[in-house]
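Wed. Picked up where I left off yesterday with ABC transporter domain-containing protein. The coffee machine is broken again, so keeping this brief.
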Amino acid sequence: MIECRDLTKKYGELFAVDRLSLKLAPGDVYGFIGPNGSGKTTTMRMLATLLNPSWGEATVCGHSIYTGSKEIRRAIGYMPDFFGVYDDMKVTEYLEFFAAAYRIQGAERKKKVEQVLDYVDLGYKRDALVTSLSRGMTQRLGLARVLLHDPQVLLLDEPASGLDPRARIEMRELIKRLRQEQKTIMLSSHILPELAEICNTLGIIERGKLIFNGTVEEAENEVRKLRGGRAFLVSVGERNAEAAKKLTAFKEVAGADLDPKAGAVRVALRSGYDDGSFIPERLIADRFKLHSFREEEINIEHIFLTITKGITS
Ligand SMILES: Nc1ncnc2c1ncn2[C@@H]1O[C@H](COP(=O)(O)OP(=O)(O)OP(=O)(O)O)[C@@H](O)[C@H]1O
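Structure written out below (tokens, as returned):
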């Protein structure tokens, strides 16, 4: 669906995007993560055929960005990080304007507009002026706009930026629905946790370079490898400090430290040891009262921090 090979954009001496290669299959939801200025928007704009690369190749739905811009623009929905809305235009007028640009005609146009408004749950604002919408509503309108022509590929640049937590959840639910419809979605963010539930594959970009590219599972394995093994969180309540000391002595344990945020002892296993079940077993045998035990989850934030640290240090 999307394929890049050595895609590069140079601004003077700066490599905004540096030999980026990736491949997205139909139905993939690709979380494109990186700090501000790392090259996410530049990549998306090249894929949307709005910006010419310095070199490299990319195809979207089988069309080259150099020769197939017409076909690509028909097949994609690109939602930029900032987009203007027009003063004195009602929500329906705004969408009808874009539907017309996609050559959706007559009764079909009205039907489509109502459909996308319903999809993003903005039907009740159909007669409101676009300038009167909140940031969250404006983002949902932006999404409605790129869905008008039912594109197979969506390029969403920071769709949740500037949204409050509730609006962010609403946006996430919308993207989950699009995923169920087998759309291929590239989604950028510098706010990491919001991508966790949505994506099946991930790319981490730093200073124009893709420093990780793979499935979420591969990213988790990479984190385990870089960290040296699995980690578990165990709590025995007030006796956590005592338990930490005891656990440190076991041959399977690389380290056992109090994790005040989790209210537990974080037990890191030495590499080669996978099974943490001995932790509660031995604590119980030692008459500790077990409050909780679980494997430490690896969230996107961990992945980002560990992988960027692992690569740059
Ligand atoms: N037109 C331009 N001229 C010169 N430099 C540019 C231009 N556009 C982008 N850059 C630079 O290219 C780099 C990548 O920018 P880009 O906007 O792609 O980053 P980003 O990852 O999308 O950042 P953000 O999260 O802030 O949106 C930055 O260093 C930026 O300053």
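Quick read: Residues 255 and 268 are 5 Å apart (CA to CA).
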